[in-house]
Amino acid sequence: MIAIKKILLIFSAISLNLLIFWGCQSSSKTIKQEKSFDEGSKFSRELIKEAEKYLGIPYCYGGSTTSCLDCSGFVNLVFNQFGIILPRTASDIYDFAEKVSLSEAKAGDLVFFRAKNKINHVGIYLERGEFIHSSSSKGVTKNSLSENYYSTHFYGAGRVISIQP
Question: pTM for the whole thing?
Answer without folding.
Answer: 0.76
